[in-house]
Amino acid sequence: MSDKEPIFVTRPVLPPLEEFIPYLQEIWDARILTNGGPYHQRLEAALCDFLGVAHISLFGNGTQALLTALQAADIDGEVITTPYSFIATTHSLLWNQLKPVFVDIDPQTLNLDPARIEAAITPATKAIMPVHCYGHPCDVHAIRTIADKHGLKVIYDAAHAFGVQDAQGSILKYGDLSVLSFHATKVFNTFEGGAIVSHDKETKQRIDQLKNFGFERDGSTVALLGTNGKLSEIHAAFGLLQLKDIGSALQQRQVIDQRYRQKLAAIPGVTCIEGLNESTANYAYFPILIDEAYPLSRDALFQHLQDKGIYTRRYFYPLISNSPVYCELPSADAANLPVATRVANQVICLPIYPGLSEEQVDTVIAAISEAGRA
Question: Which element (helix H / strand E) includes 373?
Fold first, then answer.
């Protein structure tokens, strides 16, 4: 174990405490702690403005937002999705009594491969749930074409895609709904939190009703089978503080990303993942793939780095389709998912977050390079 300060794959970015205290005092004085209070409303408006979207509904976490988005979309049957994601993506389907159908991923972007989606469509297919993996946009135009052709809805798991844009603006504008996570490890966070981006006022009203137990505006009539998905005022206030410095945070992430790419390019057996050229990245993660040209296996490198006090993450490993909950599904067979299976056994996400110093980045690179000469 290294005697240096450990380097973690991510660390929450906290504003100065003295900046947070006035917000807390205002919340205490107003005695409005939740239920869509002033800070909640301010954060929704600020996020719509920053992200360039029409409507946004805040949630207590991203999983609640996924569950409610699927409920709001009013779908049943089968949903085509990726095995290469965090387990919440597929859990949200099962909780809504929907059947996940796994399709392989694109080897460049690691997103759902549009070329394989159409072959998986059956009469029972009602929707597609792609994931903007690591913040790299899916091929949204190809997915939309397929969805329109077959009359399917598209719900994007955009947990990693805060602030990501293409030539038409926010990537969150695509699909019927897009779902964000504001977990502490994300580019933008509210400690815990999430959101659904919708395109019209009526859909937002339905989502807001569903996240408040299904109550109608009179507060006494329950018209829908809803849940308690509300974000507290303290979480919303923290989000407003985070949003003030998001530009600087993204710039710092970009610098780290570029340094990794420049230095790792010279190491055989290490591949850096590239997004689509026409998109604007948010540098949410820095995944690399370790192949047979590297002298250590992925797991051996993972342990080597950990022994040196560098805590990376095999994200996403194992595949969702390999978990006991889903492995019996016909679409979970590894033979159907060769790219996702290979990538899951090769991937390591390296540390990237604002405040990660140039010296620390070089320490990570040196450790990979050193092991690569073994």
Answer: none
Q: Which of 191, 213, 244 is the last residue of a domain?
A: 244
Q: Which residue has the tokens 């089978």?
A: 225
Same domain, residue pair 185 and 232? yes
Cα dihedral 191→281→274→313 (10° resolution): -10
Give the number of domains in the chain. Answer: 2
Query: What are 335's two structure tokens?
Result: 């033979």
Give one DSSP letter per residue of 286-347, joined into a string: EEEEE-TTSSS-HHHHHHHHHHTTEE-B-TT-S-GGGSTTTTTSGGG-GGG-HHHHHHHTTE
Indicate whether 239 and 250 sit together in one domain. no
pLDDT tens by residue, 224-234 = 999 999 999 99
Do 148 and 287 reside in the same domain of the chain?
no
Residue 208 token pair: 């807001």
pLDDT by residue (tens digit) across 232-291? 999 999 999 999 999 999 999 999 999 999 999 999 999 999 876 666 889 999 999 999
Indicate if 219 and 229 belong to the same structural domain. yes
Q: Which residues of 97-118 are buried (b: 16+ CB within 10 A; e: fewer)?
A: ebebbbbbbbeebbbbbbebbe
pTM: 0.96
